[in-house]
């Protein structure tokens, strides 16, 4: 099974169901060049011909993942983010707005990290969306740009957005909805 990197750490995963988990985690866990690899001990040690030792999981595990001079600050940060995520939460308003906010992506296909939505109806009301973005900008809510494939507004929770920011956005969305109910 393969999932996009934008969903990494968006929900608990039973790692025992997978033989190997390999994740380019830069958007959700830390900075660029960070990769998470989870391999059970019983899969370590396979002789892989022509594989450089830096990619041999047994060599990495035997050297506490320090075989090839890692970028320590990035690894340290990556270790802090899951702890922060575990101790934080989020807020959802899109599906509870009686159709004022509409996510054009079916629930099973939605990303937990990037949330597109239209305002007013499934195709979006350009005037309402423009007003929403203008008011958001006044409140210093940046980068709520149009989603490249579905239009509307896009909220990104990558890079461990602070819970206070999520709560501020949810409060703004609720207030905007109450002021502009159709």
Describe this structure in words.
The protein contains five helices and five strands, in the order βαβααββαβα. It has 182 residues and is of the alpha+beta class. The strands form two sheets. It has a three-stranded antiparallel sheet with strand order 3-4-5. The protein has a two-stranded antiparallel sheet with strand order 1-2.
- Tell me the name of the CATH homologous superfamily of the largest domain: Aspartate Aminotransferase, domain 1
**Could you spell the SSE succession in H and E letters?**
EHEHHEEHEH
In this structure, how is the largest beta sheet organized? Answer: 3 strands, antiparallel
- Binned, the helix content reads 25-40%
Strand order of the largest sheet: 3-4-5
What is the CATH topology of the largest domain? Aspartate Aminotransferase, domain 1
Over the alpha carbons, how many angstroms does the gyration radius reach? Answer: 20 Å
Question: Overall pLDDT, averaged?
Answer: 75
Q: What is the level-2 CATH architecture name of the largest domain?
A: Alpha-Beta Complex
**Global morphology:** elongated
> Helix- and strand-based class?
alpha+beta
Tally of separate domains: 2
Poorly predicted segments: none
Strand tally: 5
Protein name: Phosphoserine aminotransferase
Catalytic activity: O-phospho-L-serine + 2-oxoglutarate = 3-phosphooxypyruvate + L-glutamate
EC number: 2.6.1.52
Domain Aminotransferase class V: 4-95
